[in-house]
Design goal:
mainly alpha
């Protein structure tokens, strides 16, 4: 029986074309993919939210809801999302519709859930439109009328700075 030849790493073919292809893929991914965002420091986010920045309030509410870098607190999440939604944050309005529907951080209130879904959907939010359509199928006609009345009457209320 003849011994089988051993292949050492130095004896393997180099496959330069494969190496060039892999290098090109790595470079393309580095250039084309968005950079991974570092988590926004909670203290800076909270300071901006307290200063009345609606988008900071919405981001803080979302982080509190998920427990992302902060202890999960549904009541605080609801309060921050409500402040942001009242100022016109569509993201917060959609989140608020879900919280009201599920009764998370606040008692369940289906009319309020539909009101916020209607408001956010009117701004073009696709998630809000799905929530709106779902709620429209499940609420009684008098609830739908009330939610539509509330949504029509709603106007954004900017917060004074340093509230």
């Amino acid at each position: 029986m003849r011994p089988q030849p051993t292949v050492t790493p130095a004896a393997r073919p180099a496959f330069p074309a494969l190496r060039r292809l892999l290098h090109a893929l790595v470079v393309a991914c580095a250039v084309l993919l968005p950079p991974v965002a570092m988590a926004e420091p909670v203290d800076a986010l909270r300071a901006a939210a307290l200063a009345g920045d609606a988008e900071a309030q919405a981001r803080l509410g979302s982080r509190l809801y998920r427990g992302d870098g902060v202890p999960r607190d549904l009541v605080a999440a609801f309060r921050w999302l409500l402040r942001a939604a009242e100022q016109g944050s569509v993201t917060a309005q959609t989140g608020l519709a879900v919280l009201y529907y599920n009764g998370e951080g606040t008692p369940q209130h289906l009319v309020e859930a539909l009101k916020w879904a209607l408001i956010a959907a009117d701004s073009g939010d696709a998630d809000a439109a799905r929530h709106r359509d779902y709620l429209l199928q499940r609420l009684a006609p008098h609830q739908v009328r009330e939610a539509r009345r509330l949504a029509t009457a709603w106007v954004p209320k900017p917060e004074p700075a340093n509230r």
